[in-house]
Amino acid sequence: MAASGRENRLYALDGLRLVVALMVVFYHYVALAAPWGHSTVTIFPTAHQFARFGWLGVEVFFLISGFVICMSVWGRTLGDFAISRLTRLFPAYWVGVLLTALVVKMWPVISEIEGWGSVITNLTMLQAGNNTQPVDQVYWTLFVELKFYLLMAVVVFFGVTYRTCLVFCGVWTAAAALAPVMGSTLLTQFAMPMYAPFFIAGIAFYLMRRYRPNAVLWTIVGFQLLLCQRYVDYRMEVSLGKELAAALPTWPARLIIVAGFAVVGAIALGAFDRIQWKWLTHAGAITYPLYLIHMHIGMTLIYKLRDRIPAAPLVLLVTVGMMVAAWLIHRLVERPLGKWMRNGLKRAVQDVRRETRPGGLRGRWDGSRPEPAVPGTAPAASAAPAASAPARPFAAPAAYAGHPDPETLQLSAPVGLVPGQRSSHSAPHPAQGDGHRAS
To answer: Is the dihedral of CA 32, 36, 37, 38 positive or negative?
Structure first.
């Protein structure tokens, strides 16, 4: 039985998205040496100890994405889902790519771009699959999100139900667990064993909220929490370097992951439903554009101003500046361009549905010119109909009797980075987007 008293917006989830986005920003600005020219241990002796684990915000983003994307697909068609993701991800992303490329081209102190050809490829968001250098290193998470959306599209195709979601979680868990030993690059790419546990756990948490917790769902979450621990050492090496990662304990990273699971689980169970702070809606809305623009642009600003402004105020100033820029992108680009794209894609999907329904093309033939002849058949007679066979007006196929014309049906409007039918919450990306980005 589906839960009925939890239709309120999940403001706490918006707040969590902002927290994990700032974790990633904190990691890039305080833990990494690139914008400062040397190790930040001497610059931020205390803050550095915490900032070097900020990369885990990406993992929590993926957890949130699993929750909100499962929320968003409920009751939607495949076309609805595709429209919601495209219009959520691309408007801000295009601005992020172009702004970052412009800054990096003008001041190549943090990174360089291969050329404008690579920038154009980046605009597709498929650069990781085309072996093209990303304009900004944080964009790797978007390709992970895209693969997750593709997997969820399969669920939507077969119909989103409690059972199909459980089967999907089971099959994906098995594929992710076996992929490393199967020797299949294709399976590994789509099973994503390193990140699948976070998405799957997020789906299970949403099922707990939509229905109710039970032993099956808690078992799924428990397995994912155990499976994701397998890759903590590797993620530390990638994020901090082998030498530093080897010198650090792994328990802080594992504790942060457990905390992320606990907070999302508490949100799913309604522990934070009393939080109704309206400003969190705006906070959640800027997390995706903030994630897209903060790294190379923000680090370049720090590099240019580090000798003029003290370190701590500089980090605060750049962070606030990036948040303001993210809000402007959301208001001036995401919302208007997303609405324009959504309306155009809705009309296109309606055209496809109308033209591909049984008898759709013949039903719209106006009779002003001969119907094209089918090869291998006799041409249609051009003479007027014989008196013994009076013409009849076109009759709709019986299958459509009593049903509205598909052309008049309205697609459900997509909601945010990671919205849902039962909640108007929008989802990141680091990570969907939704979310978180990432999504």
So the answer is: negative
